[in-house]
Design goal:
single chain, mainly beta, Porin, 232 residues
């Protein structure tokens, strides 16, 4: 009901969907309203995986010119209770964000806290580039198994990265923009990912498509997604 009300009052509405090579899937809807002084957004996402039942996540975010905060919750969906929050400071070229989350599923509990640094800038007319580095301190309380982190990830789709390093490049060509990106992350093993996102502005509608491929948990991973943003 809150999301429907937000959509009616919003200046922008969006929908997204994606599927993974290993059977993961997600779909989300969102709405954003506000002006340059304050912007507020609400979103709802449904996600699932081969060993993770379908669950829902709700999120709310608020941002000003230099501050941004976000809160997400999986409200005891299919046995999973998870809450995550982040608070960041941003300028035109850099940002610093504090992050934290806690989750429980049956006898297993996860607690995590970390930080992320971001930087971006204009390389040439119509071309921007950026990078980020994030690190987390993690604690998983769970019965001892041969792969308790892997078991947790399969059941929740939360793979518990210790750190992640990423870089991207964006090129605008009229109404079309292309953004290739690369990232490395460390969970139980070193992971790599490459992606390409394309956005096309058609009047008040922005269409988005993305494809990604990588290697994680000793397996080839991939995902394709699409979405649109409608200015109201």
């Amino acid at each position: 009901m809150l999301l429907l009300l937000a959509a009616l009052l919003a200046a922008e509405a969006s929908i997204d969907a994606g599927v993974g090579l290993r059977g993961e899937r997600r779909a989300s809807i969102g709405a954003r309203a506000g002006d340059e002084d304050l912007r507020v957004s609400l979103a709802a996402m449904r996600f699932a995986g081969p060993q993770a039942p379908e669950r829902e996540e709700l999120s709310v975010a608020a941002e000003t010119e230099h501050l941004r905060g976000e809160f997400k919750v999986v409200p005891m969906s299919a046995g999973l209770l998870r809450a995550a929050a982040e608070l960041g400071v941003h300028s035109g070229t850099w940002g610093f964000v504090l992050v934290g989350r806690a989750a429980s599923l049956g006898r297993r509990q996860l607690r995590a806290a970390g930080a992320r640094a971001e930087v971006e800038g204009e390389l040439a007319e119509g071309m921007r580039a950026g990078g980020s580095f994030a690190a987390w301190a993690l604690q998983l309380d769970a019965p001892r198994t041969s792969d308790r982190w892997g078991d947790w990830g399969k059941a929740t789709l939360d793979w518990g990265e210790r750190w992640e390093l990423g870089a991207w490049l964006s090129k605008e060509m009229g109404d079309l923009s292309l953004t290739p990106a690369l990232s490395l992350a460390q969970s139980t093993a070193l992971e790599g990912r490459a992606s390409l996102q394309a956005e096309l502005q058609l009047g008040p509608v922005k269409l988005r498509a993305e494809a990604a491929v990588g290697r994680a948990r000793s397996l080839l991973q991939g995902e394709v997604g699409c979405g649109l943003v409608l200015g109201l």
